[in-house]
Design goal:
Blueprint lengths: L1 E11 L5 E10 L2 E8 L12 E5 L4 H20 L4
Antiparallel strand pairs: 1-2, 1-4, 2-3
Length: 82
């Protein structure tokens, strides 16, 4: 899935981290903001830029975490310490 995000503003947090406040349209008349580290965005991203954000399944991480959970369950069921 691809969604469009508008870079509303760029801020510097108290800790010094730079973040971008993105505005994303959820449905007609309904928007939400998404605060992300500026380093996640393409170089030279500025306020008022439009971005395309792509969501893809992360099957590698999903499989790895599933295996870790299965291993932990086996250890708990056998009485071994985790």
């Amino acid at each position: 899935m691809i969604v469009r995000a508008f870079v509303d503003r760029i801020e510097t947090l108290e800790e010094g981290e730079r973040v971008a406040v993105l505005v994303v349209r959820w449905q007609p008349g309904d928007y939400f903001t998404w605060v992300v580290p500026l380093e996640w965005l393409p170089p030279n991203t500025k306020e008022s830029h439009w971005l395309l954000v792509t969501f893809e399944p992360d099957t590698e991480t999903q499989q790895r975490i599933h295996q870790q959970i299965e291993q932990t369950l086996k250890e708990l069921q056998s009485g071994d310490e985790v």
